[in-house]
Amino acid sequence: MYLTKTDKTTLAGLYIAKFDKNALNALGFSGMWQAFNVIGYSLGSSPASVKNYRDEFDRLFPGNPRVGWQRPLKTRSKTIFNNFNTLDFGAFTDLIKGFLIPEYEEEKEISSIIKLDANESVAKRLITGKAAEEYFKATYTAIDEFREHKLKDTTGLACGFDFKLSHCSSFYCVEVKGLNQNTGNIIMTEKEYFVANELKGNYCLFIVKNFSQKPNHRYIFNPVNSGMKFKRLERTVVQVNYSMTV
Predict the structure, then answer these.
(1) Which pTM was predicted?
(2) What's the domain count of the chain?
(3) Are 157 and 164 in contact (CB under 8 A)?
(4) Residue 235 domain flag
């Protein structure tokens, strides 16, 4: 069944209304507004839309602590409810994770064989990745330096930045980072740091903050030479290989 962005946002609201705190725990969210913010931006929707759909379905689940909107479901919401409300917790959770995590089915198969890092919750992964990137795409045109620039998504190219913005002879390369709170640690990879140092004023570090309450942002051009203090971190990784003769 093909689902639009609005359908997915509606289903996220239904999932939270039906399973309440269990839904938040399953995705690693610490509170409702964190869930609204992260899911909304990750789906290219708005946090308010996720909340509104939750409120619309709330009255149908007296087990949760909210009253919800006391009115009949809209036609599309009613269709979504009829088609998906019978899903149990596990199946519904997989459905929502499938919207949010690229190649989720393949990852699920791998995790059944190899135990993945339990600290990497859906919430954490989205805040440091997809949600922050979608926030940037939704807001970059409001930044004076980026106005009239054409955006190219380079997240899959492993080139040291997430987006390239171009206009005539002007260009900027932007690396997006996300934080759950208003303060926190930002980590740049060796490649990101090197490219930032090479491009200088054409490189921008765009930090999306406070997903736990109300997201806002800060951006820094030429971050390596901006006066910010970077601490070099080194980690030794032991890799085990197995060889055979054919």
Answers:
(1) 0.90
(2) 2
(3) no
(4) no
pLDDT mean values, one per 10 residues, the chain (246 residues)? 93 98 96 97 97 97 92 95 97 95 80 63 92 97 95 95 96 97 95 97 98 97 93 88 92
Spatial separation of the C-alpha atoms in residues 86 and 91, rounded to whole Å: 10
Which residues make Cβ contacts (< 8 Å) with residue 18, sequence separation at least 6? 57, 61, 85, 92
CB-neighbour burial class of residue 102 (10 A; exposed 0-12, middle 13-18, buried 19+): exposed
∠ CA 48-37-174, rounded to 5°: 120
User: Which bin fits 37, alpha (ψ -120 to 50), beta or left (φ > 0)?
Assistant: alpha
Give the domain range for residue 177: 128-223
Structural tokens at position 13: 């609201």
Q: Which residue bears the tokens 């570090």? A: 205
75 exposure class (CB count in 10 Å sphere: 0-12, 13-18, 19+)? exposed
Residue 137 lies in a domain: yes
